[in-house]
Amino acid sequence: MNDEQKRRVACHELGHALVAVFSPKADPLRKVSIIPHGNAALGYTLQLPADDQFLLSRTELLTRIRGMLGGRAAEEVECGEVSTGAQNDLEHATALARQMVCVFGMSDKVGLANCAQRPPDLLAGLEYPLQRDCSEQTARDVDEEVKKILDQAYA
Amino acid sequence: MNDEQKRRVACHELGHALVAVFSPKADPLRKVSIIPHGNAALGYTLQLPADDQFLLSRTELLTRIRGMLGGRAAEEVECGEVSTGAQNDLEHATALARQMVCVFGMSDKVGLANCAQRPPDLLAGLEYPLQRDCSEQTARDVDEEVKKILDQAYA
Amino acid sequence: MNDEQKRRVACHELGHALVAVFSPKADPLRKVSIIPHGNAALGYTLQLPADDQFLLSRTELLTRIRGMLGGRAAEEVECGEVSTGAQNDLEHATALARQMVCVFGMSDKVGLANCAQRPPDLLAGLEYPLQRDCSEQTARDVDEEVKKILDQAYA
Amino acid sequence: MNDEQKRRVACHELGHALVAVFSPKADPLRKVSIIPHGNAALGYTLQLPADDQFLLSRTELLTRIRGMLGGRAAEEVECGEVSTGAQNDLEHATALARQMVCVFGMSDKVGLANCAQRPPDLLAGLEYPLQRDCSEQTARDVDEEVKKILDQAYA
Amino acid sequence: MNDEQKRRVACHELGHALVAVFSPKADPLRKVSIIPHGNAALGYTLQLPADDQFLLSRTELLTRIRGMLGGRAAEEVECGEVSTGAQNDLEHATALARQMVCVFGMSDKVGLANCAQRPPDLLAGLEYPLQRDCSEQTARDVDEEVKKILDQAYA
Amino acid sequence: MNDEQKRRVACHELGHALVAVFSPKADPLRKVSIIPHGNAALGYTLQLPADDQFLLSRTELLTRIRGMLGGRAAEEVECGEVSTGAQNDLEHATALARQMVCVFGMSDKVGLANCAQRPPDLLAGLEYPLQRDCSEQTARDVDEEVKKILDQAYA
Predict the structure, then answer these.
(1) CA–CA separation, B105 vs C97, rounded Å?
(2) Which chain C residues have a beta carbon less than 8 Å from that of B104?
(3) Which end of chain F has fewer CB atoms < 10 Å from its terminal CB, N or C?
(4) What is the ipTM, given to two decimal places?
């Protein structure tokens, strides 16, 4: 890994760490590493909750999303442009925002209805593909709400 | 589980219990627990019908939905914001509201037509995925009616 | 089963029976029962055709649909609101109305074209899911026509 | 089978036969039967081409469709309303009209493009569901053209 | 095969041959046959390229499509109407036009993006159905462009 | 392979090479060949990065796309029209542009949300087809953004 890439990784992890330190509800920061570990991770930022977490409030969920996006924000500010390094962060942040909208009922527009994809109740055999049981209109609302949550968290 | 989480669980179960006590048609309340039971339940509210229930009227169905949403409402009022704890309640309330619209013919807009997903009649083998046999327009009507039932029950 | 539920079952079956008796083209009424039989049926209304029926005219089909909806109508009038007891009736009435529109060519709007879901002709192996071979626009027309048939039968 | 049903079957088969006799391009009529044969057929009208047919012109295809719809037309005129007896005729007429539009390029609106459902060329294994490879807009055009062909043939 | 059908086959193959002879970029014509070969072919027109063809320019592709449609054009002009005989030609011409739009980037409207159906890259096992990875809007653009290519080639 | 085709292959590979040489961020050019290698490749242009690449910035991704499209551009300029030779380049360039929009969050219009097709998290067995978990509206936005990236890279 050349120097430019090492600098980018350092910026990225620092971004995660800064959000963790300055967010009142964030899980405490334990360790930051920019030494590559095998093929999977070029670096990592480790946060561990003080207690076991059985429930997460809306604020705690948004704090987690903000933390995930901190690495990309740091790259944009420090390196002038974003890179492929935020792929995993974006995937996890999207999944969490989608859960907020689809299974936790935390979007006014979509409402309380569970609209996640799931196997049908009666025939939950492994052979069945998941069914999208909502309409295209609801799917569009979900996409808009997910985009809004991520945009606000990144702002 | 720290104190804040315990308080939230207590609020949540109390919300279920209050709806059960004050709804004329609700099944009688038997037990409320806020002691975690294994991984699945942080607490529970047990209601058992006085007799075996073979039929449920429209009012009884709405009362059940209101009871399911009582936990989330109590969290919102007492803890200031909602949490991930209502996930199961929302899933069950959505499923019940969807049945009212799709298989019990209880929505004027969607009408009497059964529009649930089901395996085709002639070839009900296990290998077949369920078919959505209604149009996108009907799916949108169903989503709107389900949202309306839940919003009214939560109000 | 408590008294309220028994009364509802009696109303429901009586509704079926009344339509059967007063419709000129209905199959003759043989037996009405409101004694529960196992888990499946809380009561039943038995109609048997005078002869074997190989063909059903449009009028005979509509009479059958009206008979199926008679139970729900009686519940609504006598008990003040509908219940979950009409689920099977609605499923069968929907299927029959859908056949009128999709395979018997009995809707002017949809026309003569067969638009039912069916396995493809050449490869009718059991492994194939049924194909919806019509457009979303046609699916919407079908839904509207099915709703109209049921609404008119219920009126 | 009661007399009313026998009369209806006779009308239906006579309708097929009349179209066969009076259409210049129709295959010659060989036999008409209104005696039920097993469970499948209540009657039949047999037409056999004078020679082997390797190619069918547009006119010959339309003549076949008209013949298929003759039974239903006769029921409507003679018995006052249509019945379930035309189900097979409608299915075959729809399939033929659909082929005219989708694989024989005989609709100006849809044009010459093949838009039939078919398994992908490279992976034509039996495990694959057929793919609809056209857009919803094209599917709607196909449905409209099929409806027009059938309406004109029935007029 | 009666005389009318023989004449139609002759017209059809002659149509292919004429396009082959008069198109500057067409592969040289080797043989024309109107003697049926088994069940599959009533006649054929054989064109073989002068050299092995590893690349085909846009002009060469359009010439091939024009040749495929020559048989149908000749039937329309000489026999007064088209027949089922052009089915294979239309299927191949459609497939080629679709490739021009979807994988060779030869349509300005659709642009350079590959929008063909294909199995996902990572999980290319045989059990997976092909995925349509473009939107309905793009599918509509593809259909319009394919129709335009065929219409212009037939004009 | 005749001379015209050889000239076309030479143009195509030269196009790739020219972009590689004149782009500041492009991977260094190692070898250009226009000698066919088996059935798969008529020629190739080999670029190897100076260091192992663990991360790619937005600029580096766009440079790669521009390099992939260089072959087609050269054919268009030098040979007067494009050919089938750019098929692989277009497929790879599309895939890269699609990743930029769907998994790297590099499109303002689509935003940060991951919208790639992927197997559901919980049931990642091999039997499941990938699910498109975004709405048609988002799919359309993705297509437009992918087209824009390719058009700008080709300009």
Answers:
(1) 15
(2) 82-84, 86-87, 90
(3) C
(4) 0.85
